[in-house]
Amino acid sequence: MTTTQRTALVTGATAGIGRAVARHLAASGVALVVHGRDPERGAQLVKEITEEGGTARFVTADLTDPAEVLALAEEAGAVDILVNNAGIYAFTGTAETTAESFDRQFAVNTRAPFLLVGALAPGMAERGHGTIVNITSTAATSPAPIGSAYGASKAAVELLTRSWATEFGARGVRVNGVSPGPVRTAGTTAMLGDNVEVLGRATLRDRIGEPDEIARVVRFLVDADSSYINGTVILANGGEPSALPA
Ligand SMILES: NC(=O)c1ccc[n+]([C@@H]2O[C@H](COP(=O)([O-])OP(=O)(O)OC[C@H]3O[C@@H](n4cnc5c(N)ncnc54)[C@H](OP(=O)(O)O)[C@@H]3O)[C@@H](O)[C@H]2O)c1
Prior knowledge:
The chain starts with 6 loop residues before the first strand and ends in a 10-residue tail after the last strand. The longest helix is centred in the middle third of the chain and has 29 residues, at 99-127. It is α/β, with parallel strands linked by helices and 246 residues long. It is built from seven helices and seven strands, in the order E-H-E-H-E-H-E-H-E-H-E-H-H-E. 43% of the residues lie in helices and 15% in strands. It holds the Pfam family adh_short.
């Protein structure tokens, strides 16, 4: 019996969580379209995956530009898996968040996944199978004194996750999310440097998460082992103290 190799588009695969997701999917035999803006890091990732016996190609697109998002979907073609991972975060108070910053966060975090699902999910539904995983954030459900725009952009993605599961689920397309807590990535390190560890202290694991710990949840959600999981968001956040009774 011949089995067809599955294909996946992973956005924001040039760094952090997206990079780990791409590597885990490639290791499980999925052919990758890896996306980012930085062609050098894109080429490096493709080289690593290829050297390990996997298949990958890099496509660049600035997700703040809707035309580039649609061109990315076109370039990716008829993928079986879409992982909406690329995201940006500005941890500023509401008064300090400019309209430009608000729009930018919503463009990358919310509008780009929306356009990619609109471009790719109907094809999955027509073929009768597909899986979509959206990377959300603790900020979507646990408000903090800073980062309200970021939290709102991710809360919208959690609602969209349930909407899309409703819209496409009966036609064989599963849509789920993973909500990471603090994870050690290029993004968090750029923000906090050596202090990045401090983020983990607020979790019940008392440590920061690693990209691989999120990637393994994504891999589960795109595999047949999770075939009856649809329209939900899995928390991979080390455990939130506020979830416990006092
Ligand atoms: N790290 C955490 O603690 C944490 C916690 C909760 C949720 N998350 C979510 O997890 C996802 C990944 O986070 P991360 O920390 O791994 O991110 P990261 O290290 O900052 O990497 C971000 C990725 O997104 C891409 N990207 C950023 N802006 C883009 C744009 N305008 N157009 C196209 N690509 C763009 C980057 O590509 P280039 O570098 O090539 O430009 C890079 O590949 C995000 O959605 C984030 O909100 C992260």
